[in-house]
Amino acid sequence: MIRIFAAILGLLALAGCAAVENAVPEQPAFYLDMAHGGARLDPVVAASMISGYRANNGLGPVAVDPELMKVAETQSMVMAKRNKMDHDIAGTLPRRLAAAGYPAKLAVENIGAGYHTLAEAFSGWRDSPPHRANMLKNGVTKLGIAATYAPDSKYKVFWTLVLAFPDER
Fold first, then answer.
1. Pairwise CA distance, residues 142 & 73, whole Å
2. Which of 80, 96, 146, 155 has the fewest C-beta atoms under 10 angstroms from its C-beta?
3. 132: enclosing H helix or E strand
4. What whole-number distance in Å separates Cα of residue 11 and Cα of residue 21?
5. How far is the first Cα of the chain from the last one, in angstroms, to the nearest whole number?
6. Distance separating alpha carbons of residues 154 and 34, to the nearest angstrom
7. Per residue in 85-132, pLDDT tens?
8. 100, 71 in Cβ contact below 8 A?
9. Residue partners of 102: CB distance under 8 A and separation at least 6
10. How many helices (H) and strands (E) does the chain have?
11. Residue 2 to residue 128: CA distance in whole angstroms
């Protein structure tokens, strides 16, 4: 009886080890595929990624700003709804910031479409001189970022990144 019990315990221990070995490691947030319903972009990861890039270029970090998140989300949603990538589709950036009540001394915006992950969007912006210049804009301290899934679009995902320095009057 003791031998049977020991054998069962041994098998259970081995089964537990096998389950741990076969566990799928969690995917980093910057590789999360946004091209399906329910995927949520992590703005803190985005801010960390962009801040690291800025630090490598001698610039200060950026932090997530809830108001800029709303501005970015609205822009991405309108682009997705109209299936068109356009900076001014929901109004010019200064008008959108003013409508949101966001007093920016300085603000720039990157948009994109077709990138399925934050890593892809970041790489696309980094490799484009005007978008790179925006991510490396001296003086910006705040960020809003959004990715909107559009299942019926050839692009599938529309991106907006807003970087700003608020007027703290």
1. 15
2. 155
3. helix 129-135
4. 15
5. 80
6. 14
7. 999 999 999 999 999 999 999 999 999 999 999 999 999 999 999 999
8. yes
9. 67, 68, 71, 164, 166
10. 6, 4
11. 69
Helix (H), strand (E) at residue 154? none
Alpha helices in 22-59 (DSSP H): 43-56
Rounded to 5 degrees, φ, ψ at 87 are -60, -35
Cβ neighbours of 130 (radius 10 Å): 9
pLDDT digits (tens, 9 = 90+) for 19-48: 444 554 566 777 778 788 888 999 999 999
Q: Which residue has the tokens 């949603």?
A: 77
- Token reading at 127: 């490799």
Cα Dmax for the chain: 80
Tokens of 110: 């990157």
Name the strands in the sheet holding 63-64, side by side, starting at the edge strand that comes first in the sequence.
Answer: 63-64, 142-149, 157-166, 104-113
Geometric angle at alpha carbon 26, from 120 and 38, rounded to 5°: 65
* Tokens found for residue 34: 């946004």
Determine the Cα–Cα distance for residues 146 and 72; give it in Å rounded to an integer. 5
The residue among 14, 33, 46 whose CA lies nearest residue 110 is 46
User: Whole-angstrom Cα distance, residue 136 to residue 168?
Assistant: 22
Beta strands in the chain (DSSP E): 63-64, 104-113, 142-149, 157-166
